[in-house]
Amino acid sequence: MENLSKSYGKTRALDGVSLTISPSEFLVVMGPSGCGKTTLLLTVLGVLMADEGHVYVDGKDIDALRVRERNIGYAPQDFGLFPHLSTYDNVAFGLRARGFARSEVDARVEARLSLVGLQGLDQRKPSELSGGQRQRVTLARALAIDPCLLLLDEPLSSLDEATKAEVRGNLKETIRRTGVTTVCVMHDPEDALELGDRIAVMFSGQIIQLATPAELVENPRGEIVRRLFHHLLKS
Amino acid sequence: MRVETKQRRDAPAREGRDRFNLGLKLMAGAFIFFMLISLFYLYIAVGSQWSLVVDALFDSRILGALWVSVSAAFIVGAIAIVAAIPTAYVLTYSEFRGKSVMETLLIEFPQTFPPATVGLVYLLMLGAGSPINIAYTYPAVLIAKLYVSAPFALSFTLRRFREIHRTGLDVIAESLGGKTRHVLLWVLVPLSTIDLLGGFSLTWARAMGEVAATLIFAGAIPWRTETFPAVILLTSQSAPQVALAASLLAAALSIAALMLFKLIAGRRR
């Protein structure tokens, strides 16, 4: 991302955000509500158009590409599962839309459901699944299309505390196994430190610190970062 | 566990003193009476003439009107739904100048525009003297009813498409590689079945009841263009038992259609 800016009227949601994400990296973007993290995610996805700046994937400018042409997996906060479709059909959606043969769809759906540990639940509708299971279907669906980048919007915020701990471990493990580059928006500092290879802390549309979890805890830059991580800091 | 608060125990006493509340109930009661009395009075009005009315039900003119009204309402409902889906899609996803005026012209205006004027406009546009003359034909019945009743299908479909758009499910479908046809046919339409059914049902009912536009543009030729409301209008003085028979049948069909829709909608939910 190079110098991304986006305004809503007089409010500057993104203010010159530049970031380079390494292949297979799990980058957490965190910050208080309204700091611009979801706007950043939706701009990369292509739903919002940046006023200035560019998004590159593998060195290629993707600004002119539509959402469907970007090959970016997206898992929204509320899971966004198609309520009328079974687990199988949710995961198969992208593969069918891309015209994969039936046997290929079967094989890929089975592989993704097995990756997230949901074998045997393929005929259940989202309403028949628990919060944790829905989260895993969302992840399987986004991963089924072999995305070049995975965007997760608050993947743990819709879960209760007990489910959250379990899903957090599974999420990191699943994504590590696929090796997909991930940008994950979160607001909980503990989750961010646990999951992120690096953490970008946003405030007022800007990235105010980009560091590994260890660096962030050792050396928080400025009062805002210190306040966000206050109960987790060493000193 | 049963909890009875003091407020609840006191409620009847307090309501008794609440004249505003009583006034509201009286006004609501008067309106409910006004709305329901016409429906029940239809059956009271038949009175001792039941045998005449039953005979009239098998009158050739009534059977012809039954055929024209019901078949036209089904065709109009189907055309309205088929037209509403792409139109609602365009109005949901396209931004253009004058969009809200366009919506008003497509949804509210046809419902408030005098139907007699609609009939006259079509008669001038597609009647004798125009290159395409379809006045006083069955297609004229369809066109007049479609203009007046299709807005119901469009407003139901548009409202639902916008609701789905706000959930972001369409964006998710697109992020997975879904093209317009996938978003429409795999997400929007299946998630709108109840609303499409609701739109069809009200379009059907409105088409059944439409009289002025149809009468002016299509006339009232038995078995070709004469509908139930036209029979009622034209026979209410000369043959009241025929008008009553047609009214009873029309009311029964409307109630049956609404009950059927509610039943299907209830099962799907």
The CATH topology name of chain B reads MetI-like fold
Q: Main sheet of chain B, how many strands, which sense, barrel? A: none
Q: Give the overall shape of chain A.
A: globular
Tell me the series of helices and strands of chain B, N- to C-terminal: HHHHHHHHHHHHH
In whole angstroms, how far apart are the ends of chain B? 30 Å
Number of strand segments of chain B: 0
CATH homology superfamily name of chain B: MetI-like
What is the number of domains of chain B? 1
CATH superfamily (homologous) name of the largest domain in chain A: P-loop containing nucleotide triphosphate hydrolases
Instruction: Provide the CATH top-level class of the largest domain in chain A.
Output: Alpha Beta
Number of strands of chain A: 11
Overall tally of structural domains of chain A: 2
Describe the sheet with the most strands of chain A: 6 strands, mixed
Distance from N terminus to C terminus of chain A (CA atoms, Å) equals 33 Å
Assembly type of the chains comes to heterodimer
Summing up helix and strand content along with how strands pair, one would put the structural category of chain A as alpha/beta
Largest interface: A-B, 23 and 17 residues
Report the portion of residues of chain A in β strands: 15-25%
Second rung of CATH, namely the architecture of chain B: Orthogonal Bundle
| Parts with pLDDT < 50 across at least 5 consecutive residues of chain A | none
Annotated CATH topology of the largest domain in chain A:
Rossmann fold
Topology:
The complex is a heterodimer of chains A (235) and B (269).
Chain A: E1 2-8, E2 11-17, E3 26-30, H1 37-45, E4 52-54, E5 56-57, E6 60-61, E7 72-75, H2 87-97, H3 102-115, H4 131-144, E8 149-153, H5 161-178, E9 182-186, H6 189-195, E10 198-203, E11 206-211, H7 213-218, H8 222-228
Parallel strand pairs in A: 3-9, 3-10, 7-8, 8-9
Antiparallel strand pairs in A: 1-2, 1-4, 5-6, 10-11
Chain B: H1 6-17, H2 19-46, H3 50-57, H4 60-93, H5 99-112, H6 115-126, H7 138-167, H8 169-175, H9 180-188, H10 193-209, H11 212-218, H12 228-235, H13 240-268
Helix pairs in contact in B: 2-13, 3-13, 4-7, 4-10, 5-7, 6-7, 6-11, 7-10, 7-11, 8-9, 10-13, 12-13
